[in-house]
Amino acid sequence: MAVKSSRKDGGKRLVQSRLQISSRDNLTECTKCGMTYSPSIIDDTTTHKNYHEMHLKGKKWPNTWGLGILLTSSNDSSRLTPPSSSSKMGALSARDERIIMVRSDHQAEVRTTIHILDIVNSELHAPHNENEFWCRPNSSGRAFLYVKEDRAVGVLTIELLKPERCRWMIYEDRSIVDGVEPRFILGISRIWVCRTQRNKGIATRLLEAARCNTIYGKTIEKWAMAWSQPTDSGGKLASHYNGVMHKSGKLLIPCYI
Ligand SMILES: CC(C)(COP(=O)(O)OP(=O)(O)OC[C@H]1O[C@@H](n2cnc3c(N)ncnc32)[C@H](O)[C@@H]1OP(=O)(O)O)[C@@H](O)C(=O)NCCC(=O)NCCS
Ligand SMILES: [Zn+2]
Questions:
Q1: Taking a C-beta distance cutoff of 8 angstroms, is the pair 171, 235 a contact?
Q2: Most exposed: 31, 142, 162, 181, by fewest CB within 10 Å?
Q3: DSSP symbols for 225-254
Q4: What is the pLDDT of residue 72?
């Protein structure tokens, strides 16, 4: 099977990259999710069905899972809902759309989120083993999900950054600025929204939720949220969300290595 996608490394477009070749005969390409697979092979068909559904519509997510975050009309005031003894989601349980923080001590939530991230990493051609910072009990990192109509349709994982990893990147040519040591706080490890829900502001709302809720009691400045090797669409999102115009006229994106 193969998935057409953009790459995480340097944002260069990949025409096609093979994950696994089942059969060279009788391959078909799904026009909706971009996967190439062999319909005559049961494993291939099943893998395609799972990938297709996730890629387009996200993954089923029970409404009792996760710690709810209050979504307000003003982007920059998302806050965790106060703990509720009757409902884990507090006041948000009745809403169709909500943002939740994955509880790292709840195995089912962690497992399902890792499953979502597997699909994301396949699309991004990114490593599948970068979850430690959010999925262990008492981790300093976080995973946030955007849940809409009982499906997790967007995901964002955030890590805390050490100063030596932080860099400015020039947006237009993706080059790293030498000789400057910026100090960013949060690293955007993965951000993804399922295909049918893109361009509705979901990624921006996830970023705002993370900005206000990753470090308890502290809201991080937008420019202190750094990107890890942004893809083409990630770079565009970054340029809208927290690109900084340098006096040279060049747009800078906070990044980390
Ligand atoms: C990148 C991604 C997460 C954006 O999600 P989204 O929910 O569609 O983003 P938003 O709707 O919040 O977009 C916010 C702004 O960024 C812009 N933007 C986001 N993605 C864009 C794209 N691919 N092309 C052009 N502009 C884009 C939007 O136009 C919007 O600006 P506006 O408010 O002025 O209209 C989504 O396209 C995605 O999942 N892509 C595949 C995974 C990926 O590449 N992730 C990035 C890894 S670094
Ligand atoms: Zn498909």
A1: yes
A2: 31
A3: EEESS--HHHHHHHHHHT-EE-TTS-EEEE
A4: 59
